[in-house]
Design a protein that fits this description.
alpha+beta; two-stranded antiparallel sheet
Length: about 300
């Protein structure tokens, strides 16, 4: 009977010891998880610290610290590469704009001279190519500006209806040339949001321009009372894989040299800088790009 009591007492002690050990291990794991999330959020170079004595938990913390070091090394490498790329884009855009201005000036003088019909046709082709190059240079320059750390948007209370109407009107000639008659739906009352008017206009223009490039002849623009703006058009040449990459920097569906692939990337950056969200959806051959802004002032 005494042995049974001793055995039971030992079992109780062992169980209590195990419970305490499990509790301490859970506490250490929770501390590691909390500290790990804090390290990921911050830009600090400090590593995880653990006061516990369990070898397995300490080994786990050591492995996580190794992963943190590698993650920071890769992030630093990415940030340096991204900064170098942005600097290169800025330099390229400036280097392109100067000679293009000079070429345009000489071309204007050449157009005033008497030429044969064939020479005039060649001059027209050159003028068209120069305009494309100007657009590409301007896109590169705009991207380098909005991704600069010093770039800040001035926010104001703006009517989405008014900016949308102005943007569509600005593309009237291009829409007409492509044979597109846009169907526009807006609420009877103005929808206001706190945005930057110029950035919003640029975003709308990029989306309309994108629709003109890839639309099969239609364009539907809907502004909802909730502040959501949806641009949709049939795009038979697109695929779901391509749509997933539409907002990627330098990604372009067609490689004809008419685009840098920055238009939609710029739209995403500007939208996010205005505390908005932009998404793309592709269903049954129809592309829909949606923008949503917060209604908070």
């Amino acid at each position: 009977m005494i042995w049974l009591s001793v055995f039971c007492a030992i079992c109780v002690i062992v169980i209590l010891a195990l419970i305490i050990k499990i509790f301490l291990m859970k506490k250490d794991i929770h501390a590691i998880a909390t500290d790990f999330h804090e390290k990921l959020k911050s830009d600090t170079n400090t590593l995880l610290t653990l006061s516990g004595n369990d070898e397995s938990i300490r080994a786990l913390a050591a492995d996580i610290n190794k992963a943190l070091k590698e993650l920071r090394r890769q992030r630093l490498r990415f940030e340096q590469g991204d900064a170098e790329l942005k600097n290169a884009i800025t330099s390229i855009s400036h280097d392109l704009r100067t000679p293009l201005t000079a070429i345009s000036g000489y071309l204007d003088l050449l157009e005033r001279e008497e030429t044969s019909n064939e020479a005039g046709r060649y001059i027209g082709i050159i003028a068209n190519r120069i305009e494309v190059l100007k657009q590409l240079a301007n896109e590169l320059f705009k991207y380098s500006v909005i991704t600069s750390p010093d770039y800040n948007l001035t926010m104001e209370w703006v009517s989405l209806n008014a900016v949308l109407e102005e943007s569509v009107a600005g593309y009237y000639a291009a829409l007409q040339k492509k044979g597109i008659v846009p169907e526009i739906s807006m609420p009877p009352t103005a929808v206001y949001r706190t945005v930057n008017r110029a950035a919003l206009s640029r975003t709308f223009s990029n989306l309309i321009g994108n629709a003109i490039k890839y639309s099969n002849g239609d364009l539907n623009i809907t502004l909802k009372e909730t502040g959501e703006i949806v641009f949709s058009n049939t795009a038979p040449e697109l695929s779901e894989v391509q749509v997933e990459r539409l907002f990627d920097r330098f990604y372009t569906v067609q490689t004809a040299g008419k685009s840098t692939g920055l238009g939609l990337s710029i739209s995403r950056i500007l939208t996010e800088q205005m505390n908005g969200r932009i998404t793309a959806d592709f269903h049954n051959g129809k592309l829909s790009i949606s923008i949503q802004f917060s209604d908070k002032i």
